[in-house]
Amino acid sequence: MKEELYLVDMYRDDYYPNFLVDRIKSYLQTAEQIIQHHSEDLVRVQQALDVAVSSINDLAETFYAHNSEIETVAREDIAETVMTMLDYYSITLDIEEALRERDW
User: Fold this and answer.
1) What Pfam family is a match for this entry (predicted)?
2) Backbone angles phi, psi at 41, to 5 degrees
3) pTM summary value
């Protein structure tokens, strides 16, 4: 998946510190590497997404410490990035299920 398709809105908005958006991007790229090689295995795909989403959850306090949070724009942008990734690899997984571990 093209790098410029990751978290487009979060990178455009100064409300989100770029170094934190970079971390989210890194978690999603790690998931994508697994998905790329195991796109036929929905269990592995879901596991990769669960790890990425759990890692994103762990950033909540760091966002707060930098006067930011994973709120509506961020939630939608993360979901859009994941949907784009799933579409890119022709994976039919419901976005709510794909992001089931989120607490944001």
Assistant:
1) DUF5713
2) -105, 95
3) 0.94
